[in-house]
Amino acid sequence: MKQDCVRHQGVIHRAESRHWVVRMSPSSACSGCGARSSCTLSSASDRFVDIPRDGRSFGIGEEVQLSVTPRQGFRAVFWAYVLPLIVFLSVLFGSYALWVSQGLSALLGLVALAVYYAGLYRFSEALSASVSCSMDKLSQ
Fold first, then answer.
1. For the chain, where are the alpha helices, taking DSSP H only?
2. What is the percent of the chain where pLDDT is above 70?
3. Which of 60, 100, 101, 133 is 20 to 30 A off residue 126, Cα-Cα?
4. pTM given for the model
């Protein structure tokens, strides 16, 4: 199962009460990665990821490897991109079908997205349990 994981290397940036904050930087290895087309890390500077604490001990500045299974990756993509698109398009076309003007339909769609993402933020702890990375120390 570990063979099918998407992996990124990172450094423990800081420790908080409930999670570790890991800094990931794009590397030259990103150019050869099979997941680079769907990965946002290759086009950015540094990314910070919160990883729940599980009792293991890590030190600040320690290099770690983050792994996520394709299933968890697809789940994250669904919650972050697919479902909001469905919500937006449903509200947009649904309100337009009810003879609401195009401008108001678009505004209602954007309001629906704002409500969706506010709800996603509100329940982010519950969602993080279903979409999570595993973190392991890099072997020296």
1. 70-77, 83-97, 102-122, 124-130
2. 84
3. 60
4. 0.68
Sheet holding 134-137, edge to edge: 47-52, 19-24, 6-15, 63-68, 134-137
pLDDT tens digits, residue range 19-42?
Answer: 888 998 876 555 556 555 556 555
Rounded to whole angstroms, the maximal C-alpha distance in the chain is: 65
Helix (H) or strand (E) holding 110: helix 102-122
Q: Are 74 and 57 in contact (CB under 8 A)?
A: no
Distance, in Å, from the CA atom of 2 to the CA atom of 129, rounded to the nearest integer, reads 19
> Is 20 in a helix, a strand, or coil?
strand
CA–CA gap between residue 61 and residue 121 (Å, rounded):
28
Decide: helix, strand or coil at residue 26. Answer: coil
CB–CB of 22/61 below 8 Å? no
